[in-house]
Design goal:
This protein is of the alpha/beta class. The chain folds into two domains: about 160 residues, Rossmann fold, CATH 3.40.50.970; about 120 residues, Rossmann fold (3-Layer(aba) Sandwich). It is built from twelve helices and twelve strands. A seven-stranded mixed beta sheet has the order 2-1-3-4-6-5-10, sandwiched between helices. Strands 7-9-8-11-12 form a five-stranded mixed beta sheet, with helices on both faces. Helix 10 links the parallel strand 11 and strand 12. The longest helix is centred in the N-terminal third of the chain and has 15 residues. It holds the Pfam family Transket_pyr.
Length: about 300
């Protein structure tokens, strides 16, 4: 199966052909995928070199002239390094852009901590007005990329990952989707963690919601799932643990509830390892999730064989 990032350049190249407002801004990363697009649209495909602050500044300038810039590099260089420019050049100036990241959380362990950004969504949460898409499959990534580019002049972050669920689900860039119903609690699975969550909760009397768009947070969808009496909620996110706990608490502020936020821990894991080893170390594999979710919701049992 191809990856989300494999879809990125072909989809955006087609958008460049279809819409004269679309522009692409790169900082070396991903330039080979746009070689043909550069030939066809030399005025709307720009590579600024290894200058991430300029990457955002140039995109903001394009947006202020009426273009719809799509900006791409690794998450740590797209959100963290040029954060001041994200805050001021885009946010303060009211300029919109589509930021599309790669190497989410720990997708490239050999790159070390400089190339990891599990705090990217939490960092964007300190700013106003960002839509955040976290697709769980290449098909969803393609749909959400098109949604993002078509979103007027909004500020949109699309978080691509090499981690993927086995199959894509219909996504609309808006609310949560119910994939399993139960009565003993609600588990919200974000993007590529859905398969692990479904294996972990197999046979448990819990509702599972799927979120491929996490900002705006679907407060109404969570309230419907928990019911008028309120209930306990587990958030399983493929980035910093607890990123959405405040949003969930706000959604359920008037009903009894508890919220557990699971995700990538704050401790730096200093050995490269493999993606699967990082997943297990952060307790995001199916077996660990089964134990953690079961203990919190007071449901349990071993992960079924073959799950």
């Amino acid at each position: 199966m191809d990856t989300m990032r494999d879809r990125f350049a072909p989809v955006v190249t087609r958008l460049l052909d279809e819409d004269p407002r679309v522009a692409v801004v790169l900082a070396e990363i991903g330039r080979d995928g746009f070689a043909e697009a550069l030939r066809r649209h030399p005025d709307r495909v720009v590579n600024v070199g290894i200058r991430e602050q300029l990457l955002i500044g140039a995109a903001a300038g394009m947006a202020l002239t009426g273009l719809r810039p799509v900006v791409h590099t690794f998450a740590s260089f797209l959100v963290e390094r040029p954060f001041e420019q994200v805050k001021l050049d885009l946010g303060h100036q009211g300029a919109g852009a589509v930021l599309v990241s790669a190497a989410a959380s720990f997708d490239w362990p050999a790159g070390g901590y400089t190339h990891m950004a599990p705090g990217d969504v939490a960092l964007l949460d300190t700013l106003d007005g960002w839509t955040v898409h976290v697709p769980g499959h290449p098909d969803e990534a393609e749909t959400l990329l098109r949604h993002a580019v078509a979103a007027g002049d909004d500020k949109v972050y699309v978080r691509l990952s090499v981690q993927s669920n086995a199959r894509g689900l219909p996504v609309d860039g808006e609310g949560f989707r119910t994939v399993r119903e139960g009565r003993s609690g609600v588990v919200v699975a974000v993007g590529p963690v859905l398969d692990a969550v479904l294996r972990a909760t197999e046979g448990l009397d819990v509702t599972v919601l799927y979120a491929a768009t996490v900002r705006p947070f679907d407060a109404a969808g969570l309230r419907r799932a928990t019911g008028a009496a309120g209930t306990d909620v587990v958030l399983v996110e493929p980035y910093l643990a607890g990123t959405s706990t405040a949003a969930a608490n706000d959604a359920l502020a008037d009903v009894p509830h508890r919220v557990l936020g699971l995700g990538v821990g704050r401790a730096e894991l200093r050995r490269y390892g493999r993606i699967e080893e990082h997943v297990a170390a952060h307790g995001l594999d199916a077996r660990s999730l089964r134990e953690r979710v079961g203990r919190f919701l007071a449901v349990g049992g071993a992960v079924p064989a073959g799950a």
